[in-house]
Write a structure and sequence with these properties.
The protein is α+β, with helices and mostly antiparallel strands. Among the domains are: 212 residues, no CATH class; 163 residues, Heat Shock Protein 90, CATH 3.30.565. Helix content is 44%, strand content 17%. The protein has 14 helices and 18 strands. The strands form five sheets. Strands 3, 4, 5, 6, 7, 8 and 9 form a seven-stranded antiparallel beta sheet that branches. The protein has a five-stranded mixed beta sheet with strand order 13-15-16-18-17. Strands 1-2 form a two-stranded antiparallel sheet. A hairpin with a 2-residue loop joins strand 8 and strand 9. Helix 13 packs antiparallel against helix 14. It is rod-shaped.
């Protein structure tokens, strides 16, 4: 168990644990930072949206408030088609009798917004009734007072239909009840003139006073100071207090001013100035008997003992369309939803002047993609740094573990490779020195065995020393002119016997006698010798014992190939075999060595400016050595 934990599996588990801790902590920090960034972004977007909502509501109320304020300040008399001003003067600076001068309502000719459909007033007195200054009685329509009065742009058939619709579908008492729920107490007062019945006793007293005044004037006709002429108002008893009741006030309201036509005193009635109180004008939804709703601005007016509701009927659909266009640049998909704005939540976007709630449409304030913010770039760099650190630690740890295992394998292999020849040498030498072998033929055989083991030991030690020297520094090649035929002949002489002892047949293809290259002959011999030695080791038991060595020129490169007909090299081991202390998994038992032959051959090939590759892996093993070759004409 202890050995298992101390090897690569244990190191891998430790590395995985470190990676999990690092990625878990960094991932938690990243998620928290991104969540906080998103929340802050959403809060900023929500704040911007709230500012836009306030701006939109300010625009909506600002667009409609002046017009509603004008209607709120409209006097009581404007809701009658004709009304008498309380005080009028003639061009002779004399006051007219109140009620003798009539003025048409400005609502007959005033320029009104298209969404103001109808100005109306309703009273819940006996009989009840609706009236409108824009729907005059027939008697008033026949008047030809002046050229300007004959043009009545606001007197239309559409307004007549609306007044008839209201009178049919809504009782004045219901209208007044609905207004009472919404309006505030009266805030200002006005005065108006209405017809009143004259008190008989008071009239006689006034007549006596008038006769006395006339006698006094006639008796003093020769006085130095002539009498001051009285105006019609001063001579009339109409300026004295009169008796006013609810029915008279209702008659004045319902008749829309037509009762002022004709002589006032003909039936003993005169005008009387009364004080009226008016509440602020508020928006109200009128619920008609057919189930529909109409938006109106209403106020309550108290005239003596009569309560009257005055208001303006609005086209809520047209009004909403106009208002939505007003904020189209802020909220293109905004809608104004009808509702009641009294008692609404302060956080809801409702208008202050009209019962509309602003629906701004889809919430586009939340940013779907924040892009590469500073925080995200920093987090990305942190992750990259962490990944690089993890990769460095992983590669470093894996390299240390691999180096440790290679060292262990190297020590084991070297120990085995040294023990075998040393044991053979010691045994055979003891037998020869002790005189135990007397047969000359056997002595010769033993001596050849000792020579082979000594050669094997020499190659092992030489490979180890060469690898150590290459690890410490990179030697320089001794370049010279090398004749290929002589080079291959020396290799044949060196390795022929070794191949025969291994049961192999070393075959060299014929080479042009003039073939030459500029290289280090000793390193080339070592490279090809290592390849031949590997072919002898790892192709044992092959049906075809041949080991072929070939040479040819390809594109100004000298190519040497060493091919055997053994089992070949597995696909998953073809890259690893060129690493130091690496050997095939299935050759440890069949062949000796410490795994340095191919590693040294590749290093030496690279020193010569060439490369060593594995070619034709489908039949045995064929190693290809490519070396640079110069033109023979420039060779020394």
């Amino acid at each position: 168990m202890k050995g298992w934990w101390s090897g690569k599996p244990g190191g891998l588990l430790a590395f995985v644990a470190i990676v999990c801790l690092l990625t878990g902590g960094l991932g938690w920090a990243t998620a928290s930072a991104l969540r906080l960034e998103r929340e802050q972004s959403d809060e900023r977007a929500a704040a911007v949206r709230a500012v836009r909502l306030r701006l939109a509501l300010w625009r909506l109320d600002g667009r409609i408030a002046p017009l509603l304020a004008r209607e709120d300040a409209r006097p009581l008399n404007h809701y009658n088609t004709l009304y008498p001003p309380p005080f009028t003067l003639s061009n002779a600076a004399a006051a007219y009798e109140p009620g003798t001068v009539l003025e048409p309502s400005p609502l007959l000719q005033a320029e009104l917004p298209p969404w103001m459909l109808l100005h109306f007033q309703a009273a819940a007195a006996a009989g009840g009734g609706w009236s409108s200054p824009q729907v005059p009685p027939p008697a008033l329509l026949q008047l030809k007072i002046s050229a300007s009065f004959t043009s009545l742009p606001n007197v239309t058939e559409g307004r007549s239909r609306l007044l008839r619709e209201l009178s049919r579908r809504l009782r004045p008492s219901d209208l007044i009840a609905a207004a009472r729920k919404r309006v505030a107490p009266a805030t200002w007062h006005d005065t108006t003139l209405i017809l009143a019945r004259r008190n008989a006793d008071l009239a006689n007293s006034i007549a006596n006073l008038s006769q006395q005044q006339a006698g006094f004037n006639s008796g003093n006709s020769n006085s130095a100071n002539p009498p001051i002429s009285q105006s019609p108002a001063e001579q009339s008893p109409a300026r004295q207090p009169q008796r006013v009741d609810r029915n008279l006030a209702y008659k004045a309201i319902k008749g829309s001013g037509q009762e002022w036509l004709g002589p006032i005193a003909g039936d003993g009635a005169t005008s009387s100035e009364v004080i009226v109180s008016l509440t602020p004008m508020v928006p109200v939804w009128l619920h008609l008997t057919d189930g529909s709703e109409r938006l109106a601005l209403v106020r309550l007016v108290n005239v003596e003992m009569l309560e009257v509701c005055q208001g303006v009927l609005l086209d809520d659909a047209a009004l909403r369309k106009i208002l939505q266009e007003e904020i189209g640049d802020l909220f293109p998909e905004a809608r104004l939803v009808p509702g009641e704005n009294s008692g609404a939540d302060e956080t809801e976007p409702v208008m202050a002047t009209l019962p509309f709630r602003l629906d701004p449409g889809p919430d586009d304030s939340a940013v779907s993609d924040l892009g590469w913010t500073t925080l995200r770039v920093g987090l990305l760099l942190a992750w990259l740094a962490a990944l690089v650190a993890v990769a460095a630690v992983g590669l470093g740890g894996w390299s240390l573990l691999d180096l440790s295992e290679r060292r262990a394998r190297f020590v084991s292999a070297v120990t085995h490779e040294l023990r075998t020849p040393l044991t053979t040498l010691r045994l055979y030498l003891d037998m020869l020195v002790g005189g135990m072998v007397r047969d000359p033929a056997r002595r010769e055989e033993y001596i050849q065995t000792l020579n082979g083991e000594a050669e094997r030991l020499h190659r092992l030690v030489a490979n180890v020393l060469d690898f150590a020297r290459l690890e410490r520094h990179r030697p320089r090649a001794n370049l010279e002119r090398v004749e290929v035929a002589l080079l291959l002949e020396r290799i044949r002489a060196t390795w022929q016997q070794h191949c025969q002892d291994s049961g192999k047949e070393l075959i060299f293809e014929a080479v042009d006698g003039d073939a030459a290259l500029r290289s280090d002959a000793k390193l080339v011999e070592q490279v090809l010798g290592n390849l031949i030695d590997n072919a002898c080791k790892y192709s044992r038991g092959a049906e075809n014992p041949r080991i072929e060595v070939r040479y040819r020129m390809e594109d100004s490169r000298a190519v040497f190939e060493v091919e055997d007909f053994g089992p070949g090299i597995a696909a998953n081991e073809r890259r690893a075999i060129f690493r130091a202390f690496r050997r095939g998994r299935n050759v440890d038992v069949t062949a000796g060595g410490v795994g340095l032959g191919l590693a040294l051959a590749r290093r030496w090939t690279e020193i010569l400016g060439g490369r060593l590759i594995l070619a034709k892996p489908e039949r045995g093993a064929c190693f290809r050595v490519e070396l640079p070759a110069e033109n023979k004409a420039v060779m020394p």
